Amino acid sequence: MHVVGTAGHVDHGKSTLVHALTGIDPDRLREEKEREMTIDLGFAWLTLPNGEPVGIVDVPGHRDFIENMLAGVGGIDAALFVVAADEGVMPQTREHLAILDLLGVSTGVVALTKVDLAESEDESEGWVELVAADVSETLEGTALEGAPIIPVSARTGQGLDELLAALQEMLAQVEPRPDRGRPRLPIDRVFTISGFGTVVTGTLSDGCFEVGQEVEVLPRGLKARVRGLQTHKQKVERAVPGSRVAMNLSGVSKADLKRGDVVTTPGWLRPTVLVDVQLRYLPDTLRLGSGQAQRPLRHNTQLKFFSGAAETLARVRLLGQDRLPPGQSGWAQLRLQEPVPLVRGDRFIVRVPSPPATVGGGIVVDPHPGRKHRRFRPEVVARLETLAQGSPAEILLQALERRGPTSICDLLSASGLDDAGPEALSQLLDEGQAILLGTEASIQHPASSIQLLAARAWWSALTDRISRELSTYHQEFPLRAGMGREALRSGLRLEAKVFNAVIARAAAEGLIADEGATVRLSSHTIRLNPEQQQQTDALLARFHRQPYTTPSVKDSVAAVGEEVLSMLIDRGDLVQVSPEVLFLPETYEEMVARIRAHIEQEGSITLAQVRDMFGTSRKYAQGLLEHLDEMGVTKRVGDKRVLR
Ligand SMILES: Nc1nc2c(ncn2[C@@H]2O[C@H](COP(=O)(O)OP(=O)(O)O)[C@@H](O)[C@H]2O)c(=O)[nH]1
Ligand SMILES: [Mg+2]
What we know:
The protein is α+β, with helices and mostly antiparallel strands. It is about 35% helix and about 25% strand. It is built from 21 helices and 35 strands. The strands form nine sheets. Strands 7, 8, 9, 11, 12, 13, 15 and 16 form an eight-stranded antiparallel beta sheet that branches. A hairpin with a 2-residue loop joins β12 and β13 (about 235). The protein is elongated and about 110 Å long. The mean pLDDT is about 90. Magnesium ion (MG) binds near residues 14, 15 and 38.
């Protein structure tokens, strides 16, 4: 699934376009209706012609509300970049473009809106083409360079189909958000719904959430549980990365939470107040509108810092230079006023408070440097340079996380690491960051390049799910030995090759027992309740008393119930030879042995002889013999049986 964010100057028709494309009015606040202007984030969704659902975050264009815009664009995959054809490129067109560029949003479609106005007002032919050319020039050198420009009118409907087609084509090229097994939901809204309690929304990245799961809300570290999940107003059991998610939380109240907090799984993500970053300081041209030339950024300047949906103040320690001239990048250490949960690679934006303007942004290189760096130290800068590039092992791990379980061969070629690949791979395996799927035996001989590899984070998230699925199943069916293999596979949504390798590894680790057709938690044992135990003992006693004229299947069901009886058969406490006839296993073996011996001596045996041998009735003798025919032990010849 994907999320698209609008961007562009105020009044250029973003919200109207979203409404026209989705049927949903993204301006939901009363004040927004009254002022006819987007103030806070709006949310909508649509289904592309190919059936893919797409979430849309509609942002305010007005410069007073840029900071609300920043809370919404964090997790988007692509931009719906809006420029009004009658007005052309305006200050927030450029500022939003700069923000998208700093956030690394490199896919987008430009909607040249209000072409109905442009074409009617302006007599001169080719006005729209002129504006399009100007937009295209503005995009040059940014992440959106070369994006398709589609003239549209929300009023007449012109171009909307082309726009959707362009969106679809663009999103088909965006890799799906990776499942790194470390879900993060930066909260962009908190509200309560009567009868449900606290609900938060956001764009999910890096992992999945499931109903029932325990979560942690950072930076405060509050524990909560997921009571319900929705994507695009539809209930889901599992929310996936790259989708808009509304999460109903129990254990926390609305007052405990705020925009910018992050919902995640407990125990791995730590908020930080000291961060090493690569900082890009924007060139002058983006100060258009504020009317001021940009001065070099000075050491120790205080800036507003935005990442995910969070906002705080940051003091900038420039590590390699005294001042950072406009248009340049440098290494810096930020001291944040409030803790923010960040990971390596997170993007951020910085702004000056007055006159308010976006001045730069960058990438988190080390979220936990541990201490304040001395300035102008070549070794500090060198370390940050390497960190920013990533070691071969990190590059490989990222490729593995992006692709999910992959053969060694495919992974090495996808990583583009060449000679450094194999060594990086053994490092990941040694450190336990990557694991081999498959059986103990195949794990000990990883020479085979078709062996499947998975990232540790993916593996732990998956084994958590397997444990949860199986324990739910065991609770529901305590008398069944295990869950059907295929049911588990489709529940986990894994292709057969991956699933089999996963099961083999999970069994080798002792988490589960693989019984062939069924799979169970290795801790699962069938336990009868006292009443069932009593009934079972009584039934088995009857089998012992009359080993050859046993209680029928029907009688046995009446005595212990269907579930317990099929458990007894599964477990081998009883052997079923026909739809009606059951024996104790020891009786069964004895009968088979005696029949065999008889045939070996006499050459054959008849039904009547079997009946008399065990002093039983025709029903039992016939049931057993037909069973033996079916098992390939005996063969019927006329009214006699011979050994096959
Ligand atoms: N004629 C015409 N007016 C439009 C079109 N799209 C939007 N508008 C008008 O432009 C104004 C601003 O639109 P809005 O969607 O609120 O802009 P936003 O600030 O970018 O979200 C509203 O009065 C809309 O009715 C269009 O395609 N044609
Ligand atoms: Mg709007």
